Amino acid sequence: VKNADTLPKGGTMYDLVIKGGTVILEDGETVTDVAVTDGKIAAIGADLEGTETIDATGLVVSPGMIDGHAHITDPGGGYRDGWEGYLTGTAACAKGGITSIVEMPLNQVPATTNGERLAIKEAAGAGKLRVDVASLGGLTPYNLDGGIQELADGGVVGYKAFVASCGDRTIPDNGDFEDVDDYSLWEGMRQIAKTGKVLDVHCENAPITNKLGALAKAAGKGKVSDYVATRPPFTEAEAVRRVIFFAKQTGCRVNICHCTCKEAVAEVIAAQQEGYDITCETCPHYLYFTTDELDAIGNITKCSPPIRDKAQQDALWKLLADGAISMVVSDHSPCTPDLKAPENAFDAWGGISGIQNCMDVMYDEMVQKRGMIAALFAKFMSTNVADRFGLADKGRIEVGKDADFCLIEPNSPYTLQAEDLEYKNKITPYIGRTIGCQVARTILRGETTYAKGEGVCKDFPGKFVK
Fold this sequence. Notes:
- It is a single chain.
- The protein is α/β, with parallel strands linked by helices.
- The chain has 13 helices and 20 strands.
- A hairpin with a 2-residue loop joins strand 1 (13-25) and strand 2 (28-37).
- Strands 1, 2, 3, 4, 5, 14, 17, 18 and 19 form a nine-stranded mixed sheet that branches. Strands 6, 7, 8, 9, 10, 11, 12, 13 and 20 form a nine-stranded parallel sheet that branches. It has a two-stranded antiparallel ribbon with strand order 15-16.
């Protein structure tokens, strides 16, 4: 048993003991007990005793998911007040087995692009968190004069930039996010390199995808599959190559967001082989859905980059198994139902609500259906995210780490219904899908935030992590 040589011997009474579960440790699974004191993992071993005991017999005890890519729209700034806020967003996290998120600097208004705006965001979340929240700061053309350093001083764990088009320019005073031009990307990377933090980048070639989209719409096309066709894999791969080239010039550490195609991941692999600090992530919806399903489901499947065909999905699964992709993240990007309602897919909001169903869907798809070892599942969903963003207290079931757990009931299929969702707007492409396991309990620093049959906790034990 991992850490057995450091464990207390007999007679110790812990605050909490999770007994008899199949515990996912870094070097494999073992049926054992896990003890918690003062919110930290205090011991791992047999016959531990606690003031409180949770019987985990028949359950898988995984590190709580750290979602490395989540959008919470709080504050809405009068523009997006009906979108996902901290109350519902972090409730969905808790029900889905997530204990921490790395929150993007958009789509809240104002966007998180300087120290003052970081403080505004944290004030909006005060007393509303059921998970821990680590924040990314933004890199935009308008915050190069001090904003990057202010965000570092404020405790962000990294940064985010778009080379694809983004943001609503009608929101005054640079209130919304904005994609970078080449100069802003280069200069921002130089500044971020000095902080030592990671830059997340959304990679798509904006001039090509924007023009292809306009031409398709003008030609009367409007299905989701038509939208997908205007964002071919080479437009993603080209942007990844350009971002990596800039990283080589500046020394900036980079994570390529939500990779959807083998060509994009190939660029990351090549950079890693040259010794550069480049990683990449993908998302459950790219591993679960394929293009040929999208028109039947509708605009709720529209996202950027788009969901691709079965051949690309198969390639992603192989690249994940080979370790070329480091993280699986939600890219939870919800909106109000009206923004998904236009008849023409090109007019609909691009983003998928999926944060509540990352752990159950991915445990089912990775471990139960494809036979991937559970230790790899935990790496992709938690450990690698913690390591990439410097969350030293999280990501592993190991003595001294935060007592963050997701207890999974394996081989227990259920069909997701809209009423199961904690989202403010109960829309997701997973509704009606049968998922082959369930989250039985979520524990954040020793405190249960969700229990099957009881629901989400009433209090708010989450905090902003610096």
